[in-house]
TrEMBL record:
Role summary: Catalyzes the interconversion of 2-phosphoglycerate and 3-phosphoglycerate.
Enzyme's top EC category: isomerase
Protein residues bound to substrate: 8-15, 21-22, 60, 87-90, 98, 114-115, 183-184
Name recorded for this polypeptide: 2,3-bisphosphoglycerate-dependent phosphoglycerate mutase
BP terms from Gene Ontology: gluconeogenesis; glycolytic process
Family: Belongs to the phosphoglycerate mutase family. BPG-dependent PGAM subfamily.
Site (Transition state stabilizer): H182
Alphabetical list of InterPro entries matching this protein: His_Pase_superF_clade-1, His_PPase_superfam, PG/BPGM_mutase_AS, Phosphogly_mut1
Pathway(s) annotated for this protein in UniProt: Carbohydrate degradation; glycolysis; pyruvate from D-glyceraldehyde 3-phosphate: step 3/5
Length: 247
């Protein structure tokens, strides 16, 4: 049996402003910093002590990992980072206000872009102020792999190689693995773990800063579908809030 802990970063400055964020490198808000610390305390209170950590390359996930690990007195843990755990690239919607986008394009189109499995937003132009073209952080990434937009299906496809090549080997070694990532990269991972179908995944939202613990069987399938949030009541309220963004 193996233990996997998923943690979405705390509230970012852009979450607080209601903007589509994607690969834009927004930092945590003061509330998000506190959520991250609380996530670390929830882990230690529950006696869940990760052995290794995986994060995306985005500041809000890295800050969250650091704050949570600091609160759990685990800042010394080995950490590996990958672009494959990044948030979904939101294409030309990056930097746009969610409520305004919904008002302009209507509820159906807004939800298609936000939660459908295979409809990506329009691609972002390289000269858009919110494009990642030329960012030093992705200098080692071949140009054809740097997304200009992604739907959740694209995220599943670019995330799974990291799951199988980097995370599963740690789990197979008997390590408790903490993955600190994003709303949509974690939705992609949960879709895979819980075998959620392409339509039903639209209804799954992940709250900021609350650890989600999965016990896994020897074949890395969940013992209990959906795992267990360490603060289920807070998770329920926060999931509702994520679902209602832009309204
Ligand atoms: O803007 C984003 O990048 C994501 C996560 O904050 O938003 P949404 O929940 O709308 O997919």
């Amino acid at each position: 049996m193996a233990t996997l802990v998923l943690l979405r970063h705390g509230e970012s400055e852009w979450n607080a402003k209601g903007l589509f964020t994607g690969w834009v490198d927004a930092g945590l808000s003061a509330k998000g910093e506190e959520e991250a610390r609380r996530g670390g305390r929830l882990l230690s209170d529950a006696g869940v002590r990760p052995d290794v950590v995986h994060t995306s390359l985005l500041t809000r996930a890295i800050q969250t990992a650091n704050l949570a690990l600091g609160a759990a007195d685990l800042l010394w843990l080995p950490v590996t980072r990958s672009w494959r755990l990044n948030e979904r690239h939101y294409g030309a919607l990056q930097g746009k206000d969610k409520a305004q986008t919904r008002a302009e394009f209507g509820d159906e189109q807004f939800m298609l872009w936000r939660r459908s499995y295979d409809t990506p937003p329009p691609p972002i132009a390289d000269d858009d102020e919110f494009s990642q073209a030329g960012e030093a952080r992705y200098a080692l990434l071949p140009e054809e792999l740097l997304p200009k937009t992604e739907c959740l299906k694209d995220v599943v496809e670019r995330m799974l190689p990291y799951w199988y090549d980097a995370i599963v080997p740690d789990l197979a070694d008997g390590k408790i693995v903490l993955v600190v990532a994003h709303g949509n990269s974690l939705r992609a991972l949960v879709k895979h773990l819980d075998k959620i179908d392409d339509d039903a995944i639209a209804g799954l939202n992940i709250p900021t800063g609350i650890p989600l613990v999965y016990e896994l069987n020897d074949d890395f399938t969940p013992v209990t579908k959906g795992g267990q949030y360490l603060d289920p009541d807070a998770a329920k309220a926060a999931i509702e809030a994520v679902a209602n963004q832009g309204r």
